[in-house]
Specification:
Elements lengths: L3 H15 L3 E7 L10 H4 L4 E9 L2 E6 L2 E6 L5 E6 L8 E7 L3 E6 L6 E6 L21 H8 L6 H5 L10 H11 L12 H21 L39 E5 L2 E5 L6
Antiparallel strand pairs: 1-2, 1-6, 2-3, 3-4, 4-8, 5-7, 6-7, 9-10
Length: 269
């Protein structure tokens, strides 16, 4: 599943092709993704794109008429192509641009979304999100205060988008390893000092992934077709049973919120 660095990388890849251009038409071949594609999106025509932003895992295309929200779901991808390139089976939406190019949305499993917010309105999907992990609002003190009295595992706590956005399964595991915190430890039983360390680890892991262009998994490549390379730097994700790169102990597996977790029982307490 594309996570925050992959979505940010995709946003950066497509933005130069959209900003300042007009959307001339939207071609929808499959109107039912995770939710139906709104009529306002399907009817967009001759409206200028003035910015392309990211909030959590949503890519926000801001136009003079309103905002198109794109979510890649589990297997979604965006490509910039010349207009008229024949669609393949899972190419569901094309956004044609005044430049002669188009933005193509592909999604084999159709768990992604194309949504709409009217000008001046905020979509309900964005209304209750926590701070961005690379923003000034995201601090160790903030995490510590939000964790007070919580019994849930710290891994599921930091993956909650109401707490902080964009810390998905891969980066939660890597950050907890880097901070030396056991993923099963109760969120409310971690000191502020350790949350300071975890906050820094989250920032460093995400920044490294962004620098590498995102983590290449089965279904993700960047907007220009080139994969990210952060997967080469992963310390624990997907490495259960292998030796820890720090102490040499065998990495263990657990499950948190129905998601697999790999950790070091020696290094993480």
């Amino acid at each position: 599943m594309p996570e925050l660095p992959e979505v940010e990388t995709t946003k950066e890849g497509i933005a130069p092709y959209l900003v300042g251009k007009k959307i001339t038409q939207v071609v929808v071949r499959q109107p039912q993704l995770r939710w139906p594609i709104p009529a306002e999106v399907q009817e967009l025509k001759n409206v200028e794109v003035f910015s392309v932003l990211r909030r959590a895992k949503f890519i926000l295309i801001n136009t003079a008429a309103g905002q198109v929200l794109l979510h890649l779901g589990m297997t979604g991808a965006l490509r910039i192509l010349p207009q008229g390139v024949p669609p393949e089976k899972h190419d569901h939406v094309d956004i044609w641009l005044s430049s002669g190019k188009m933005l193509r949305y592909t999604d084999p499993r159709r768990f992604g979304a194309v949504l709409w917010a009217a000008l001046g309105e905020q979509h309900a999907m964005l209304a209750h999100l926590g701070p961005e992990p690379l923003s000034e609002a995201f601090t160790g003190s903030y995490l510590h205060s939000k964790a007070a009295s919580r019994r849930q595992a710290v891994k599921t706590f930091i993956m909650d988008n109401k707490i902080v956005v964009g810390v998905g399964n891969i980066y939660a595991q890597e950050a907890l390893f880097k901070a030396g915190i056991h993923p099963s430890r109760a969120a409310g039983r971690i000191s502020k000092a350790r949350y300071d360390k975890l906050r820094q680890a989250i920032v460093e892991v995400l920044q490294a992934a962004l620098k590498a262009g995102g983590t290449t998994l089965k279904d993700f490549t960047k907007a220009d077709g080139q994969p990210g390379y952060f997967q080469q730097e992963l310390a624990v994700y997907g490495k259960g049973g292998q030796p820890c790169t720090v102490c040499g102990a065998e990495l263990k597996k657990a499950t948190h919120g129905q998601r697999s977790t790999v950790y070091c029982g020696q290094c993480q307490r």
